[in-house]
Design a protein that fits this description.
three-stranded antiparallel β-sheet; about 25% strand; about 160 residues; 7 strands; alpha+beta; four-stranded antiparallel β-sheet; 1 helix
Length: about 160
């Protein structure tokens, strides 16, 4: 009996609370509500800002066009400095590029430690193998193994491959 009466009282209380909420939302008139307006203090007049003038000195090679230098023409930069000095380089010749070697796709999968030996999981050209320091796989020599990266050499050039 006690649980039944408590259920009825709590249900009636919930109905009164929800009824009050719905009444305030739908039937409240604007005459009875007090709205508070927020006023912000005036911080003074808005000042006009001066336009900032600058120039970008682009006298460095584009790192994304290393192998495609021969087909790009160099255009001299126009300087908009107030002093009238120019920051152009004195020569318009492009430095000769090295013979670009195409590295095979190399992915480092992780490290396996067995007693004192450290073995790396390396994927070269889609072929996954377990290799140790000094091993050669598809003309790629494994020079060094750490927890998060390996150092490999290919055609006398070294590269660091991070774990993916």
């Amino acid at each position: 009996m006690k649980n039944k009466s408590a259920t009825y009282i709590l249900s009636l209380l919930a109905l009164v609370i929800w009824g009050t909420i719905f009444y305030k939302i739908f039937f409240q008139t604007e005459d009875n509500t007090e709205t508070s307006s927020v006023t912000y203090p005036n911080k003074g007049p808005i000042l006009e800002s001066e336009t900032d003038t600058f120039s970008i000195a682009m006298n460095y090679p584009d790192p994304f066009l290393k192998g495609k230098r021969s087909s790009i023409k160099k255009v001299p930069l126009k300087s908009s400095q107030k002093t009238g000095t120019s920051r152009h380089t004195s020569s318009n010749t492009v430095p000769p590029t090295k013979n670009v070697q195409s590295w095979p796709p190399i992915k480092f999968g992780g490290v396996i430690k067995k007693n004192a030996t450290v073995i790396a999981i390396v994927n070269i050209n889609g072929n996954t193998q377990l290799v140790k320091n000094g091993d050669i796989m598809n003309d790629v020599k494994l020079c060094s193994i750490t927890e998060d990266s390996i150092i490999v050499s290919y055609q006398k050039e070294k590269k660091i491959i991070k774990k993916q």
